[in-house]
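re: ur msg from earlier - yeah i can do the nicotinamide-adenine-dinucleotide complex, just paste it... oh wait u already did. ok heres what im feeding in:
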Amino acid sequence: MATLISPASAPPREPSAAARVFLEGSHRLLIGNDWVAGEGRSIAVENPARGEIIAEVRAASLDQLDQAVSAARSALHGDWGRMSGRDRGVLLSRFADLLDERAELIGEVMTLDNGSPLTSSTMVVRHLAAELFRYYAGWATKITGDSFQPSLTARPNLDFLVATVRDPIGVVGAIVPWNAPPGMIALKMAPALAAGCTVVLKTAELAPLVGELFAALWLEAGGPAGAFNLIHGHGEDIGAAMAAHPHIDKIAFTGSTAVGRKIVEAATGNLKKVSLELGGKSPVIVFPDADLDAVIPAAAMACYLSTGQQCMAGSRLFVHADIYDQVTEGVAAYARTLKVGDGLASDTVLGPLISARQKARVLEYMAIAKAEGAIPLLESELIDGPGHFLGPALFTDVTAGMRIEQEEVFGPVLVAIRFSDEEGVIDAVNGTAYGLSGSVWTRDVTRALRVAKRVDSGQVGINIHAAMSAETPFGGNRQSGWGREFGREGLDGYLKTKAISINLGPKL
Ligand code: NAD
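and the outut:
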């Protein structure tokens, strides 16, 4: 086994006083702006870096889910429903400012909850969550319809004017994963509220704590009762009940493709709208003329960022045969320098995996890769101890169609595939069930655009992987999802259009 793992050298600091007060306080649900104790199953929240239980959270019961949905439905016709777009925008801006103010605490709680390095967690709060609220605050005053005179109607002797209005879709059930809770919550909450919808948010059972801080900020910002409700719960009961709930109008889901499929099936009862942000197996495609000094660290981080636990991870590295050895060896050398450790250690770059189960799954995929004939150029050395640590791994000699090339691992496992011609690489790149992200690396602008256009995914970077901004649409093709988040399209998913036809009388 190749040696690896650069352990973080700085000792992790202890949680701050503010974080300890939060962890030791009571953990509750927010229903109609009231904090209530959950009456469902208990959830023991583990810090994955230390294997310690840091909080006990109680899930909502099915009755409490109904109460949250009723509160959300009443709010549609109450103070929230009467609030102007301007006032919704002001509220969302205030929420953005509060997120900035509390970014240190929210980031720290995210780190304790899911293991992310503290700098990344704080960045998710400031640069993703707060900016999304700020961006969608602006949209709240720009939701307008259209008006036109139709060219031909079924009543050719009459003149008509058509006015379209854009209404909120209604009650939104938001279901989020554990890998970046502040960003995932903001991606649902901000556009839904900007559109005038109301929200029942279910946190992920593996990292439920950040949601409570969002609920506290909602109260502090002066959000009206019922427009935003927070519940905890496991996917198989509370999540499934949300997907099937007759009074939820839309499910906005981020998570695995397998669960996305279950949600679609459960949603058929009232044919609620469903948006899905699902898994990926995204390609990083490197041509021989690429700037390799830029490619090597970028390709490593495209996969290993968040210890591989990110949907747009560039987990398949397609490298032209002429530079295959140079790039794969470069990526392995770079990966060896990445410090693995507790997110509260100042030099940690890669935190732990979320759970013992996830670590076992990643190890199983590494065994599958070897059984399929892939060569481990870099292999994780196991770290003893209670945390779920695993360093980066890189497999070479991987060919299209192997399971390790097809299936999402959600861990720090990169596979390198050799290619020799552009046509062949496009077929291989598009040869999985997924189509979420990807990047093309070359100095030839024509080739870059030609290849980027043919990669069948929701977003593609040229000489950058996973460039994101509040206004850039993000989402998956094929089994990576339905719909888009971010940008104007992210707002559109929470609106429904009504056309009102006005009879202007006989044509003169
Ligand atoms: P998961 O699908 O296991 O869980 C996600 C959420 O769904 C959790 O809140 C869970 O409680 C809930 N859930 C589970 N079963 C359910 C059911 N039957 N009905 C309703 N809800 C249910 O995913 P995860 O392990 O939390 O997250 C990892 C996955 O999320 C990866 O596949 C990753 O690619 C994907 N992801 C996608 C994006 C994106 O934007 N496309 C972003 C982050 C993560």
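cool cool. The first strand starts at residue 6 and ends at 7. ping me if u need the other ligands too
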